[in-house]
C-alpha cells in the first residue's frame, strides 16, 4: 500500500511538472488536466474540468474529425496521434499535436489520456521555409543568368542551363560532367 501511494505521488509530480499538456477525457469531457494545458489554452482548470472538449476546437467539423480519427486509430493501433487546431480562450488558433490512448482498450467509455504539444511556431517556421524555398526555386528557374550550385567542398550539384550554353556546352549535364572530370581526373 505504501509503494502504491509513493507511485501515485510520483506520477502526480510528473503530471504537474511536464512541459507539455497532459489530461484525461471521459466521454469527451475534461476530467483532469495539468498546468501546461491551462497555459496553452488560457483557461483555468475550473473553466475546463467537466466541460466538453469541443470548447477548445475551432469548429464542430474539426471536433468531429478528431473524434472520428481517434476512434479509427484506437481500433487499429490501440492509440492515436494527429495534428489538429485548438482555439485558446483569447481566440488565438493553435496548431497542436495530440497523442492519446484509451485508459482501458476494451472499454472506450472509461476515457482516454492525451498528451498535447503546441506546434504552432514549428508550423510557422516550416511554412516560412517552404515559402523561401519556393521563392528561391522561382528565381532560379526564371533567371536569365547562368547559375552553378556547389557544396562547400566544391562538389557541383547542378547548374542553370544558360550557364551551359554561355560556356559553349550543349547541356547542363555536359557542363557538370566536364567540370567534375576536371576536378577529379581519372587515374592514369
Automatic annotation (TrEMBL):
Protein name in UniProt: Diguanylate cyclase
Organism: Oceanidesulfovibrio marinus
The organism's taxonomic lineage, starting at the top: Bacteria, Pseudomonadati, Thermodesulfobacteriota, Desulfovibrionia, Desulfovibrionales
Superkingdom field: Bacteria
Coiled-coil segments: none
Domain PAS positions: 33-75
A Pfam family it matches: PAS_8
